[in-house]
Amino acid sequence: MFEIVKKSKKNRARLGKMSVSHGFFNTPVFMPPGTLATVKAIGPDDLKLLEAEIILVNAYHLHLRPGEKLIHDLGGVHKFMAWPSPILSDSGGFQVWSLAQAKRGNSNLVKVTDDGVKFKSPLDGSSIYITPEKSVEIQHTLGTDIVMCFDECLSDKASHAQAVRSLERTNQWALRCVKRHLELLKNPMYTKYQPKLFGIIQGGIYADLRREAVSYLSELPFDGLALGGETIGYNMPKTLELLDEIKDMIPEKLPLYTMGLGASPQDAIDVVKRGVDMFDCVNPARIARHGQLYNGRIVVNKTEIKIDSEFKGDCLRILNERFKKDSKPIDEDCDCYTCSNFSRAYLRHLYLNQETLYLRLATIHNLRYMIRLIHALREKI
RNA sequence: GGAAGCGUGGCGGAGCAGUCAAUCGCACCAGACUGUAAAUCUGGCGGCCUAAGGCCUACGUAGGUGCAAAUCCUGCCGCUUCCA
């Protein structure tokens, strides 16, 4: 269940507490994605030190390898990855879109019908068929705490007519997910997990469709709602606009989750103000691995929280020659393991030499930065 | 002492008369990344001019042949291998 602890007087931000099978997490919360049952480059011990409260895994990826049944037989995903705290699983809906984008390799990896989605495994080319029911089953079998509906992630470029059709499909799928979810909650094979189910609001860039989605999903017995689609987090001005459009329609008692949002610290600030309780993004960890590290003082004044950094985009590129002899930590205010012990010059050295320690230290920093920011935001509410 | 071969941009290594400021790899420099097909991908990488484009200096070194040379010839310097 979701409990609102405190509401901001100045904006829609709120402090909350969400209880699930494996304990609880406070909101607002940043959830590091750990797609393949691991947050890349770091371990559960690191995650605890970062004060991560909940992480993500992905139903599609774990279905492909090693298979949800194997994980179930080994005691569930928490035990499998030695993370005892809450886990949210994504449904694989995003992968339909992501694989169809085919930024690399061949493009015929996905075929969508109203019934479900046929994937070609990028691993070995074999066919996989996922329906909304199947996705929910996979997630229940994994034993995660929050199950996401299988949705159709809509492109930012979709026309209104395309978006209408896609939304219809997503909404139908949501209904099918609910049905199967309710069945599985009573199924003796799964009863020990009792996960929550979140619905996903689609509708692309169109406010009328987003509103329609909210109104449809609000009638279903969800434990939370999420905003999905390419737009969310990717096109921040539009995301904020859409949030404002639907704010009065979202049932207050449900946590609100913006999927894939949090590419930069500033995005987190913008969205929490508008009442978002949960968000996740691969970006902080990915750009860390790719050499970009968050930097900037988190300035809390009377009216707002902002980031004050000398670097473009509030992050520095550790590869840049200017850091060759730099003895300072990545961020002088940061309390993470990396900043407490290592210089920019050392991290640059590790990066240049492709030393694996770099990946861990960089990931620790960027994730901790996001979480420190969230803590500052919570204080402010 | 004799014989053969080789010297190309930070490194390795193509090119063997014109389309060569010189393929490619590494290194280096810069950029991108958003419910992770991502320890990935893209671009730049002799100098000067704002750019299309142009100019200059460059393939060990000094000369030579040719309309034209990194590419052919000669001397020198250096390196490698084989024989004594």
Structural account:
By secondary structure, the chain is α/β, with parallel strands linked by helices. The chain has two domains: 2-281, Queuine tRNA-ribosyltransferase-like (TIM Barrel, Alpha-Beta Barrel), CATH 3.20.20.105; 292-380, no CATH class. The chain is built from 15 helices and 18 strands. The strands form five sheets. Strands 4-14-13-12-11-10-6-5 form an eight-stranded parallel beta sheet. Strands 1-2-3 form a three-stranded antiparallel beta sheet, with no helix packed on it. The protein has a three-stranded antiparallel beta sheet with strand order 7-8-9. β8 (117-120) and β9 (127-130) form a beta hairpin. The chain starts with a strand and ends with a helix. It binds one RNA strand of 84 nucleotides through α5, α9, α12 and α15.
Highlighted features:
381 residues; alpha/beta; TIM Barrel; 8-stranded parallel β-sheet; 3-stranded antiparallel β-sheet
Using the CA coordinates, give the radius of gyration: 20 Å
**CATH class type of the largest domain:** Alpha Beta
Could you say what the CATH topology of the largest domain is called?
Answer: TIM Barrel
Total strands: 18
Poorly predicted spans: none
Strand content: 15-25%
Query: What is the domain tally?
Result: 2
Average pLDDT across residues? 94
- Give the % helix: 25-40%
Give the helix/strand layout:
Blueprint: E1 2-7, E2 14-20, E3 23-27, E4 29-31, H1 44-50, E5 55-58, H2 59-64, H3 68-73, H4 77-81, E6 87-90, H5 93-101, E7 110-112, E8 117-120, E9 127-130, H6 132-142, E10 146-148, H7 160-186, E11 196-201, H8 207-218, E12 224-227, H9 231-234, H10 236-246, E13 256-258, H11 265-272, E14 278-280, H12 283-289, E15 292-294, E16 297-300, E17 305-308, E18 315-317, H13 337-341, H14 344-352, H15 356-380
Parallel strand pairs: 4-14, 5-6, 6-10, 10-11, 11-12, 12-13, 13-14
Antiparallel strand pairs: 1-2, 2-3, 7-8, 8-9, 15-18, 16-17
Helix pairs in contact: 6-7, 7-8, 8-10, 11-15, 12-15, 14-15
The chain binds one RNA strand of 84 nucleotides through helix 5, helix 9, helix 12 and helix 15.
